[in-house]
Amino acid sequence: MKQTISIIGLGYVGLPLAVAFSKYFKVIGYDISKNRVAQLKNGFDSNKEFSRKKINLLKNLKVTNQIQKTRNSEIFIITVPTPIFKNKLPNLNFLKKACEQVAKNIKYKSTIIFESTVYPGCTENFCVPIIEKISKKKLNTDFFVGYSPERINVGDKKHGLENITKIVSASNNLSLKKISKLYSKIIKSGVHQCKNIKTAEAAKAIENAQRDINIAFINEVGNIFSKLNIGLHEVLEAANTKWNFLNFKPGLVGGHCIGVDPYYLTYCAKKIGFNPKLINAGRNTNDNMPLKFADFFYKSVKKNFDKKKKINLLVLGLSF
User: Fold this and answer.
1) Cα separation of 60 and 38, whole Å?
2) Which residues are catalytic, by number?
3) Are 264 and 198 in contact (CB under 8 A)?
4) Which pTM was predicted?
5) What does the pLDDT look like over 243-274, one tens digit per residue?
């Protein structure tokens, strides 16, 4: 009898996991969105990661918006979004709801794996208490947890799910071996075991924070060089002739992760009384870049556009 895996959340993280695991296991894909589930049942992926033909051939994958159909699964993998509020604090509402739902449907010895980006300590200090309270079960006695952060670069066909080394961690050694074996089925690049869950959470937190800071640095020096009438791209081309130069490019920072994840790290730091100046500075620089780019673009073309053409720019969404 095939092991049953339930994927909670069928977005850009959950669906690729569901598809990959369905090659080897029975998979139940749950999403709160009735529209998303209806589309997938009809073979349509609005994220355009999978074709209709590919989805329709998945015999071991069943999608649903009824959480009770995940009941008694051996494995639950939670891939819900973890955004931020307007005040830049972590919004764990989706994660909390997922924990509550899963807690009502786990069976004895089930394993719950979290892939959502969180701050170090969140899995054990926020998620586990919710699950224990609702399920009336005890961690490492009645159920187990793991943390394996998603590292998918959306739209990147070269660095897809199967080609990115998977970080894994767990609440004890037994479940670590189980989770490692599970992901090894679908990850060609192999798995990296962390000694504890906090380490895995921290690794994910710094991956995107590091990238954010490096992009912020290039954006800042770009502002300097523009005032000095020096071409930034020519500077980068020259600097990149050194073997250890990190060749980041200037630009806007968007997407699901880079503009959000650093705030999870700063939230954690402030809770222990540490003010993360560098991370905050990087975020502040990149948060302000859309206005700088819009201003630069406007000033560059203002002389060459008549009133009618300028209105067309506004229609495109550029607000000056």
Assistant:
1) 17
2) 257
3) no
4) 0.88
5) 999 999 988 886 668 888 999 999 999 999 99
